[in-house]
Amino acid sequence: QVQLVESGGGLVQAGGSLRLSCAASGRIFGLNAMGWYRQAPGKQRELVAVISSGGSINYVDSVKGRFTISRDNAKNTVYLQMNSLKPEDTAVYSCYVDLRWLGGSWGQGIQVTVSS
């Protein structure tokens, strides 16, 4: 069984920064795409950023130039560096990992709150 453990969330003032981490552990045969989603109260979940196994990256328009996704395959970990945070970035952030041969797996979600 594979577990995804997220860390790095919290409360920050507008303009501040946070770095989210998501570490996969367990019986892992390899990692395909890894990504971060978020869901704000009353809104649909949206894909924030995704990085493929080959390093291709995509961001939702609202975070381009402010957020950076990266991965460390040796550590089975994906990161989301969030700079210049805005109140509208407030949401529960969840990582998603496409596991080789096993399918997709979700983290438990972590709260990010940006105060104005």
Short recap of the structure:
Helices cover 0% and strands 59% of the residues.
Would you write up a description of this structure?
- The radius of gyration is 14 Å and the shape is globular.
- It is mostly beta strands.
- The chain has no helices and eleven strands.
Question: What's the topology here?
Answer:
Elements: E1 2-7, E2 10-13, E3 18-26, E4 31-39, E5 46-51, E6 57-59, E7 67-72, E8 77-82, E9 91-99, E10 103-106, E11 110-115
Parallel strand pairs: 2-11
Antiparallel strand pairs: 1-3, 3-8, 4-5, 4-9, 5-6, 7-8, 9-10, 9-11
Percent helix, as a range, is under 10%
DSSP helical segment count: 0
Let me know the number of strands.
11
Helix and strand string, N-terminal first?
EEEEEEEEEEE
Cα distance spanning the termini: 40 Å
Q: What's the story with the biggest beta sheet? A: 7 strands, mixed
| Residue fraction in strands | over 45%
What attributes characterize this protein structure?
11 strands; mainly beta; 116 residues
